[in-house]
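User: Conserved hypothetical cytosolic protein, Syntrophobacter fumaroxidans:
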Amino acid sequence: MPPNRSRHMSLEGTFVFDPEDRIYGDHFPGRPVVPGSMIVHAFTLAAAGLEFCSGPCAVRNFRFRRFIEPGEYSYHIEIAGDEMKCTLHDGHSVVATGVLVR
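Assistant: Predicted structure for Conserved hypothetical cytosolic protein:
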């Protein structure tokens, strides 16, 4: 049975970007910054867990408002039809937004 593409749902949770990950030795030495690709990847993993994307998703309009250090960040996902709107928060500040499309 094909997925119901008209369903609307939202989800909130936490992503943890481990400060001990070896990538931060190179990105960047002395001032670790989470790569944007890791942020997008975290959202694609969430999409797969929600069975939103059974295959590749298109990445659209991801914007990074500031550099973020490794640590814990809250996220909000809003699914409407074929779009998954993604927002990453540091406390009350939005630090990244974007859309995944199936």
